[in-house]
Amino acid sequence: MKRQVLCGLLAAASLSLPAGAARAVPVQADGTVLKSGSYVEQGVTYVPLRYLLDAMGGWTVSWDSREQEAVAVSGSARLAADPAADTITISGREYAGRVTVENGRTYVPLRLVTEALGGGAEWDPYLGGAAVTSAGAAHDAADLYWLSRIISAESGGESMEGQIAVGNVVLNRVASREFPDTIPGVIFDRVDGVQFEPVSNGTVYKTPTAQAVEAARRVLAGEKVIGNAMYFYAPALSQGVWINANRTYYKTIGCHRFYL
């Protein structure tokens, strides 16, 4: 997906915030929100190692009481986080980074570990926290996170086809010069007023249904059911005066009418 230079700047600034007292921040990996505990301190985002690796999947995490370090294994890969030496060793390569143990949890620098494992981390201003895309992930974490939520909020009661159609509208707007060129940018676009009601009423922030997540994955993988439609509305909830007067009707799916 296209990314503006601004997004790159936000990504860099996000995990390098001004120094100050520690503050809690949300972190999501591949669309899954980590359990509470992540925080920013002195410009660095720290996360519980187990929570991060659990979200990425495929890791077994344990505490080595003899070496006094956290150890994680995934296939032939091995990660060791040593709080005494402030080092993180991944498959034999050592990285310097603060490691702490707080309330039984081992905390590590998010960007350092994520990038060392081949993934990426960026600041998501709409989440107010970090989005982690693990190595080999099929989709960008922020794209999956927000697309699944807008689909769920706008069409949670619709069929899979209806949910994919809503996702298609978002991606059609991303591809259009008339709208922002990122998925979060389109969803939270306010240039001509709020574009999606769930942004106004807050339902876009709710946990999406499993079907909405699947619909988002299918949309991101290229599945399309609604052509080039860029607008929709539900007649039961809105008269759609502007859309009917200015856009060309395309198709009705479930409770939504779609327009080019």
Describe the 3D structure.
With 260 residues, this protein is of the alpha+beta class. It has helices at residues 5-14, 49-56, 110-116, 141-155, 160-175, 183-187, 197-201, 210-220, 241-246, and strands at residues 23-24, 27-29, 32-33, 39-41, 44-48, 60-64, 69-74, 77-82, 87-90, 93-96, 100-102, 105-109, 120-124, 129-133, 231-233, 249-253, 256-259. The strands form 4 sheets. The protein has a 5-stranded antiparallel sheet with strand order 1-4-5-12-11. A 5-stranded antiparallel sheet has the order 6-7-8-9-10, with helices on one face. Helix 4 (141-155) crosses helix 5 (160-175), helix 4 (141-155) packs across helix 8 and helix 5 packs across helix 8 (210-220). The model is unreliable at 1-14 (pLDDT under 50).
Offer a concise description of the structure.
With about 260 residues, the chain is an alpha+beta fold.
- If you consult CATH, what is the topology of the largest domain? Copper Amine Oxidase, Chain A, domain 1
**Unreliable segments of 5+ consecutive residues:** 1-14
Terminal Cα span: 22 Å
The CATH class label of the largest domain is Alpha Beta
Overall, the morphology is elongated
State mean pLDDT (0 to 100 scale). 90
CATH architecture designation of the largest domain: 2-Layer Sandwich
